[in-house]
């Protein structure tokens, strides 16, 4: 089996290790927008030193240069793990067994970009690693493997991504075996189809007026580390909240959602959410750096000030 890997490192590292160890790997391709200075890139340099050919794909060369390169390589299979450029239809049939995509989400319920973000933000208890055939519509191809993966409360996007990537070695070898019999490919369901776009600024912003403390915690976890935290505003300046933890206490009534109800140099920074539930702000990213909630208090945070959804919102409940 001659395999070409198109991947984003380090997410696909276990895929690379598996196929190279089994003497099945021929070449590795990278997406140009995912790397800086290809000539100095650590992964490209390291893979070349191990004797593998590499190819950097972009939107300009995928239709012609990459197609010609792939035809000359004559692969049996192309594995894709972390690649966002749509592959032209005429290229998909060059490998004997086509292209297989490793998708970090359940299909068809979680099609589209950054599926791990949406699984955590929507507070799912379980997601899946889905290995499916790539067709001209990308996430609609037949499914070869669906491996359920539980989402632990408090798990961040980075934690879940890492956990799923560790499972890929065994699943990759299983996929290479199964793809050789086309009867193992099963069509996707026509029910519960959801397609997600890449999260925009609104999706990444805390909506203090409408989101509960649980929803805010899930959003913060979904933004860490890929988006640098969930967006909010303090005293008219944008900041990102990187980590929070729930507070087990009775609801605090009569407070504004987003209002800072306790700011203590030893005890930390606490904010009121919808229905009076509290969150402790553990880590914040601002123009002053990435700071603990306690360190952020040193910048002049006051009880009665508010985190807000937008730049123009009222951010004081005290004069």
Describe this structure in words.
It is a single chain. A 7-stranded mixed sheet has the order 3-2-1-4-5-7-8. Strands 10, 11, 12, 13, 14, 15 and 16 form a 7-stranded antiparallel sheet that branches. It has 2 domains: 3-196, Rossmann fold (3-Layer(aba) Sandwich); 201-308, Methionyl-tRNA Fmet Formyltransferase, Chain A, domain 2 (Roll), CATH 3.10.25.10. The N and C termini lie far apart (71 Å). It is built from 10 helices and 16 strands. Helix 4 links the parallel strand 4 (77-81) and strand 5. The radius of gyration is 23 Å and the shape is elongated. With 319 residues, the protein is an alpha/beta fold.
What characteristics describe this protein?
single chain, 319 residues, alpha/beta, Rossmann fold, Methionyl-tRNA Fmet Formyltransferase, Chain A, domain 2, 10 helices, 16 strands, 24% helix
What would you say about this model in short?
The protein is an alpha/beta fold and 319 residues long.
Backbone structural class: alpha/beta
Whole-angstrom Rg: 23 Å
Residue fraction in strands: 25-35%
> What sequence of helices (H) and strands (E) makes up the elements?
EHEHEHEHEEHEEHHEHHEEEEEEHE
> Strand order within the widest sheet?
3-2-1-4-5-7-8
Give the strand tally. Answer: 16
* Contiguous helical run count: 10
Average pLDDT figure: 95
- What is the terminal-to-terminal distance? 71 Å
CATH level-1 class of the largest domain: Alpha Beta
- Please give the largest β-sheet: 7 strands, mixed
| Dominant shape | elongated
